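Lecture notes, unit on protein representations.

Consider one protein chain, 165 amino acids long.
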Amino acid sequence: MTTRYTVTRVGALVLFGLGCATLGGWWRGAPDPAVPHAAPGSMTRLSAEDRAELRRALSEDVRLAVTAALPPPGTLARAEPVPAGAPAEVMVAQASAPPSAAHETAQRVLEGAIARGVWQPDDAQALRATLPDLSQLEASQVLAELSRAVNTGQVQVPLHDRPLI
């Protein structure tokens, strides 16, 4: 770090602190906003229906935000690491290799869960059994698709006390 950079950062922090102190002093003199008076405990307790509705609304908002943030399926393929000094032909062969039988099995498990809309313990066991046979590229693709399906609500995970995989 250069001295000029450090002095600039310190100056910016001092200005920020002074600005916050000034605003704090200005707001200290302002009256508190009026709070409506309610019966004790009525504002802190929600009925079961209200909690369920709030949960549904929040879940839908999160699903929409996640769906908007994720790229379309199939675009998250990351390259598998290749040892340093490996020839270009090896890298091309890894990227263009046909999917393995384990990859096809994992895809079937994932497609079945998406079709049902529920991730079951049998799905987790089947996917767990295929993971050791997948290449790093195939495993990352399958796990990215599973993550996307769960985060977008295509697949529900009813057992939150058990691992996903």
